Amino acid sequence: MRAAAALTIAALAAASCGLELDPGGSAPPQRTFTVGVAPSGTAAGAWRRARDIPTPRSEVAAAVLRGVVFVIGGFGGPRAVESFVGDAWRRETDLPIGVDHAMAAASDVDQPGVYVFGGNSGGSPTARSFRFFSGAWSELAAMPEPRSQGAAVFLGGRFYVFGGVTTSGRLAAGTLEYDPATNAWRQRAAIPTPRDHLGGAVLGQRACAVGGRRLSLTTNLGTFECYDPSSDRWERLPDAPTARGGVGAASLGTRIVLVGGEQPSGTYREVEMYDAATNAWTRLADLPTPRHGIGVATVGRTVYVMTGGPTPGGSQTAVSEAIDLP
């Protein structure tokens, strides 16, 4: 699943993955995990119920544009687009095609809008991409290859799509860069740990990939890697404490919050946060409604978790929840 846009994230731990090398050949750094608040505590904020989404879905994409959260596609509403602001939902113009497991991010600069890349359409990954602005969709140049179940972020005037699967169910390794000014794509450095159903977020001037899995609920990862466009290089950071795929991630200043996920026995309630200032993960209050395939977004200091599947597979719920962080 994907979900992506600039947000904070819930964490993952590489319980089942072996030691992997970064492009420079060094071992990944030792992870640090401290419990900053008990699962039921309120020191770092407590979860509250937001208004239910009108169309319960899972395997959605999400993005934030000018303080408005957009939840896009997914099982239960593959063409549905709904926006959320001020605790109220609004139905937007439907997507031109139905998708689930799409990647989305938003730009508020020269070519503003919500951008949606790929996803599964008709049961297979597509390369088609679209921009939504002022109530209308326009089609963009297709990605160099079909892709779904990855992540997308907007950074430095360009979009970056990484992770996911391509045709024939193969993991996608290449990082794709899209320039909205020229409507053109190019290939960048491959992600060191190809995986699907990962979270994506921005950390400073880097695009970060966290968690995910290798094509199965039984191969969840906590891998945390960040891409620097200026050097065209990925770097390994401390693994997330809880290994999981089907997650959502969001950015909040120097922090990334990781939420949700699934495994064969159920869904994850752990919410974990990485802070670049300390290079460490902390545990936040548990998500009241554990689920996967979620839309995660940050508006100001508030992290929203929209809809998703409460049980592994294709389930859906209307539940939306929020937490205010210091």
Q: Can you walk me through this structure?
A:
It is a single chain. The protein has strands spanning 33-34, 47-50, 61-65, 68-72, 81-85, 88-91, 103-107, 113-117, 120-121, 124-125, 129-133, 136-139, 151-155, 158-162, 175-179, 184-188, 199-203, 206-210, 224-228, 233-237, 248-252, 255-259, 262-263, 266-267, 271-275, 280-283, 295-299, 302-306, 320-324. The chain is globular and about 45 Å long. The strands form eight sheets. The protein has a five-stranded mixed β-sheet, with no helix packed on it. Strands 2-29-28-27 form a four-stranded antiparallel β-sheet, with no helix packed on it. A four-stranded antiparallel β-sheet has the order 3-4-5-6, with no helix packed on it. The protein is built from no helices and 29 strands. It is mainly beta. A hairpin with a 2-residue loop joins strand 9 and strand 10 (124-125).
Number of helices: 0
Instruction: Give the structural class.
Output: mainly beta
Measured as a percent range, the helix fraction is under 10%
Mean of pLDDT: 89
Strand order of the largest sheet: 1-26-25-22-21
Strand content: 35-45%
Radius of gyration, in angstroms, nearest whole number? 17 Å
Main sheet overview = 5 strands, mixed
| Span between termini | 28 Å
Run of helices and strands? EEEEEEEEEEEEEEEEEEEEEEEEEEEEE
Shape: globular
Runs with pLDDT <50, length 5+? 1-43
